[in-house]
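Researcher: Quick test of sequence recovery. Tokens follow.
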């Protein structure tokens, strides 16, 4: 999806992964699965807890870094075209400045 946005909206979307604090032992395996930048949550930040994140949640932030939408890719497998297009549409809505339409913490 990152490549799709680089082609259609260069520089507008940056997708990255955040690993939950306490699960650092899987970082090597996780980083080997793809090419997304991978950040490690730390106790002082505790982003997972602060955002009430669930495993495989995608948080979409708007241009002001405010949560626009949350989309879980475990419940909505991206191998299904409908789900891929729905997530892509949420990114595009955020790019276009439309109001958020998914609950955010």
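Model:
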């Amino acid at each position: 999806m990152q490549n799709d946005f680089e082609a259609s909206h260069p520089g507008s979307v940056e997708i990255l992964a955040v690993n939950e604090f306490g699960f650092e032992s899987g970082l090597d395996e996780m980083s080997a699965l793809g090419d997304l930048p991978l950040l490690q949550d730390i106790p002082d930040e505790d982003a997972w807890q602060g955002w009430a994140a669930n495993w495989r949640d995608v948080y979409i932030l708007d241009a002001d870094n405010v949560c626009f939408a949350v989309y879980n890719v475990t419940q909505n497998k991206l191998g299904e075209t409908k789900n891929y297009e729905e997530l892509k549409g949420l990114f595009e809505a955020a790019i276009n400045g439309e109001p958020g339409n998914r609950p955010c913490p």
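Strands lie at 17-19, 38-40, 57-61, 67-72.
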